[in-house]
């Protein structure tokens, strides 16, 4: 039977190399560790374990990269969302904060290393990331970012107006933050490449194998059941993120969903690319209601935003809004933009916007709450989960093991309210500075 992907309107689905051959689980098998979820977190965990000779079996409800790992915009910037590093230290406490900061800020070393070692063909480019300053009052916050991130070993710099214009090709910024270690890629191709690496290292992947339960095994360990088979394992890891469906009671209540959409234009001409993102960086326009974009290998601009009001519901309006914003940022675009691809993804949002590691039962953990930092974060989390599976002491892990808790009720509306607040705050600061407002601001 031919299966059709629900994200066939995605550029990544149209351009990624084929996934490795896998089959649904049938019958009973034994493993040291069973991993549920075939995104970056599950795949990198399986890869780490397989390389160390641990018998790892990964179960995926759909195809590898079906969830956020195959639908995201492909940015790979090893930073944190929303909270500054000093705020994270205060919120998480030590030693957890410093360990997680080191893991996250060095995550692109891990990504680049796996891509190189396993020769993953995923359009990987490591040319940096720019967050522009759309009004002068933002420059002070950028100075602080440079100081705090560079203090932990990141290589970032503050850009003046001319420098940011040279790198981005946009005249709209008063300066910017440049993270030289950031990159971008085809995220579905990366997920499929990780799957090939898992199999190459001796791990097992079963796709189209939805997990229906996880119960204590008679002889010890756990039995993970699917529609047509079961895995008995000493340890079980749930890494299903925003696409959690069943498997463990109430796990899907540990986060709230925030939707995001991504779109890709027709390929731009060589002449346009020489003046628009000429250094092939990723760019964030610096506003709280974000607009982030970069090129793919074909020269298409791939941009992402969060739905809000008509945006994301009215497709004609949404495409026009994105075209107007992009042409405003880059006045050298003098023709109509055609958004050839348009797709949606979902984020598993936590109020702390950092992942949470839950102890579900002796020998069973779950990890959710990536909150939109998918590529670098998911790639580094495999190291943490594999350490747990190899019996590294809880006190020595980089995430604190917590009891499963439901996300606060306000997370059902807080992300949207926060976006609206940022939009108003950006409007006020821009007007006070006498700066130009983008269309639809």
UniProtKB/TrEMBL annotation:
Pfam families: DAO. Gene3D superfamilies: D-Amino Acid Oxidase, subunit A, domain 2 (3.30.9.10), FAD/NAD(P)-binding domain (3.50.50.60). It comes from Metarhizobium album. GO terms for cellular component: cytoplasm. GO terms for molecular function: oxidoreductase activity. This is FAD-dependent oxidoreductase. PANTHER family: FAD DEPENDENT OXIDOREDUCTASE DOMAIN-CONTAINING PROTEIN (PTHR13847:SF281), SARCOSINE DEHYDROGENASE-RELATED (PTHR13847). Keywords: Oxidoreductase.
């Amino acid at each position: 039977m031919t299966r059709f992907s629900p994200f066939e309107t995605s550029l990544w689905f149209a351009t990624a190399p084929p996934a490795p051959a896998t089959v649904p689980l049938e019958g009973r098998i034994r493993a040291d560790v069973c991993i549920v979820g075939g995104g970056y977190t599950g795949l990198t965990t399986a890869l780490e374990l397989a390389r160390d000779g641990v018998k790892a079996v990964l179960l995926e409800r759909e195809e590898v990269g079906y969830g956020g790992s195959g639908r995201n915009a492909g940015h790979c910037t090893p930073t944190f969302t929303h909270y500054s590093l000093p705020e994270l230290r205060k919120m998480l406490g030590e030693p957890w904060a410093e360990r997680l900061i080191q893991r996250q800020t060095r995550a692109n070393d891990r990504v680049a290393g796996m891509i190189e070692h396993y020769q993953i063909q995923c359009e990987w480019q490591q040319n940096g990331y720019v967050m522009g300053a759309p009004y002068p009052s933002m420059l002070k916050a950028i100075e602080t970012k440079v100081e705090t991130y560079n203090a932990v070993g990141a290589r970032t710099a503050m850009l003046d107006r001319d420098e940011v214009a040279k790198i981005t090709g946009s005249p709209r910024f008063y300066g910017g933050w440049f993270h030289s270690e950031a990159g971008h890629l085809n995220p579905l191709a990366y997920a499929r490449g990780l799957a090939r690496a898992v199999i190459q290292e001796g791990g097992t992947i079963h796709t189209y194998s939805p997990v229906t339960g996880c119960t204590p095994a008679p002889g010890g360990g756990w039995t993970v059941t699917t529609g047509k088979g079961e895995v008995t394992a000493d340890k079980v890891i749930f890494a299903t993120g925003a696409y959690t469906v069943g498997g463990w009671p109430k796990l899907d209540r540990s986060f709230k969903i925030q939707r995001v959409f991504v779109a890709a234009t027709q390929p731009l001409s060589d002449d346009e690319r020489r003046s628009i993102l000429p250094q092939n960086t990723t760019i964030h326009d610096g506003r709280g209601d974000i607009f982030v974009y970069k090129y793919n290998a074909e020269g298409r601009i791939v941009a992402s935003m969060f739905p809000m009001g008509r945006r994301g519901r009215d497709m004609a309006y949404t495409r026009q809004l994105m075209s107007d914003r992009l042409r405003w940022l880059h006045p050298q675009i003098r023709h109509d933009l055609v958004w050839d691809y348009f797709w949606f993804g979902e984020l598993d949002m936590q109020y702390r916007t950092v992942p949470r590691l839950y102890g579900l039962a002796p020998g069973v953990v779950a990890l959710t709450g990536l909150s939109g930092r998918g590529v670098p974060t998911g790639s580094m989390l495999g190291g943490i989960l594999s350490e747990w599976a190899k019996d590294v002491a809880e006190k020595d892990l980089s995430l604190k093991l917590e009891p499963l808790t439901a996300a606060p009720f306000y997370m059902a509306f807080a992300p949207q309210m926060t976006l609206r607040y940022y939009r108003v705050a950006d409007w006020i600061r821009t007007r006070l500075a006498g700066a130009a407002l983008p269309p639809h601001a």
